Automatic annotation (TrEMBL):
Keyword Transferase: yes
Keyword flag Transport: yes
Name listed for the protein in its UniProt record: PTS glucose transporter subunit IIA
Keywords: Kinase, Phosphotransferase system, Sugar transport, Transferase, Transport
Domain of life: Bacteria
Coiled coil residues, start to end: none
NCBIfam families attached to this UniProt entry: PTBA (TIGR00830)
One Pfam family it belongs to: PTS_EIIA_1
Cell compartments where the protein resides: Cytoplasm
Domain PTS EIIA type-1: 28-132
Residues spanning the signal sequence: none
PANTHER family associated with the record: PTS SYSTEM GLUCOSE-SPECIFIC EIIA COMPONENT
Amino acid sequence: MFNLFKKKDFTVSAAADGELLPLTEVKDEVFSTKMLGDGFAIKPTDGKIYAPIAGKITTVFPTKHAIGITAKNNLEILVHLGIDTVELKGEPFNVFVQEGDSVKQGAPLAEMDTAAITGANYDDTVIIVYTNMDIIDSISPISPGEVEHGQEIQTIKFKS
């Protein structure tokens, strides 16, 4: 009863089907050194991308390669589709959401043509980054391996 207002643990789910990887294995130093924040990556087996959390769409990049979501608890997540795919000027992406939309965890966000991305010599890894680390106390470790979208990946504990 007295824990009524205590912040609960928050779970983040897989944004795609594929192989779950630690962020440190991403082949881009901005992500692998956690310059933008901590998180995880998925090497996708198809191009379907889903919301890893429920929240409000706060950013859809004009090049469609990245989507920002903010949860009710103010956690900000960046869903980044591929590495250096900004160079593709939105061509291999079809985004189903727009800024201001509310999404449920697991809702379809976008689709990307992974064959077009890899065929143009870009990496199609999907990267999930928590961009406001200042509100996070701890993040559970991931268990690398095959995952399905919607599967719980990490638990976040927030600072009091």
